[in-house]
Amino acid sequence: MIVIKDGDLILQHRKFAEVKLSPIAPDQFSCSNWWMNNLKFLRDKKGVITGFEVNADRVLHLLYSKIKSTSK
Question: What is the total count of domains within the chain?
Fold first, then answer.
C-alpha cells in the first residue's frame, strides 16, 4: 500500500518496514526495496491517478489499480 505520511509518499507492506518513496522523474519514484524499487504513477486523461506500474528486477510493467479506502 502507498500512503501519504507527514507529506511523504510511504510504501507499506505487512512483512517489511515502511520505506519512503523518492522522486526520480515526474510521477516516477524509487525506494530501497529491491522488489518495488521503481514505481510510475498512471493517470487518466483528466490527470487523476488511476494506479501505478512496478518495474523491479525481472518484473516489468506490473500494474496496480487504485482502490477506494475503506477506512473511516
Answer: 1
For residue range 41-50, list pLDDT tens digits in order. 999 999 999 9
Domain containing 32 equals 23-72
Residue 9 phi, psi dihedral angles, 5° rounding? -85, 130
Q: Would strands 28-30 and 39-43 be described as parallel, antiparallel, or unpaired?
A: antiparallel
pTM (predicted TM-score): 0.78
Are the C-beta atoms of 18 and 27 separated by less than 8 Å?
A: no
Tell whether the torsion through CA atoms of 23, 57, 17 and 70 is positive or negative: positive
Say if 31 falls within a structural domain.
yes
- Spatial separation of the C-alpha atoms in residues 40 and 54, rounded to whole Å: 7
- Residue 42 CA from chain centroid, whole number: 10
- With respect to residue 11, please indicate whether it lies within any of the assigned structural domains: no
62, part of any domain: yes
